[in-house]
Amino acid sequence: MLTFIKKTGMTHKILITALAVLFLTQLFGQNKNETKLEHYKQLVAILDTVHREDQEYREKSSTIEKEYGWDSNEMNDLWKTINEKDSINLLKVTKILDNDGWLGADKIGEAGNKTLFLVIQHSNTQTQLKYLPMLQNAVMQGNAKPNYLALLQDRVLLAQGEKQIYGSQLETDVKTGKYVLSPMIDPDNVDKRRAQVGLQPISEYLKLWNLTWNVEEFKKRMSEIEIKKEK
Description:
mainly alpha, 10 helices
């Protein structure tokens, strides 16, 4: 060290000052990282509450539908509560997205990352369109799952009067009052598209809704819909 000081002409005072600056720089960087970690912990806590409220009331809908019916006062009261919770949760999530971007699971955990998607998925079309590009970038950067993007794309397309791509969305048939798969492009290759984004085969997905996948029947129904539109 002394040899270095003699060669460079560095005085002890200058050396001490340099070491102090180095120490403060490292300390500042460490404090900054600790502040970020604390910030992410706070976000995880917020998103944990949001996720619970987003799912808790929706999980009750099937039970209430079976017991009282879809058009019952009980169901209307439930959806009033869901909409109120969604409005509050949307404010919390959009604040996070606007301030921090679409954070990955490495920052806020798998549950927190999924919650960002769920709240946007359950929002209005205008909000979905606003944050769709952010989700696209997040998927490209590995900060969100491709199937999140697929589900949001399907919902946005249908809201705009277009056909969905991945067959993730259902609707109620006007005649029967039962669930049916919403209009979709190229039904013959839907499983290829679903596999590319990590979604299960369409037949397995529809079983969750007590539906059977029959591509020919689906195409027939779509043809009938197109004919009605033309008329």
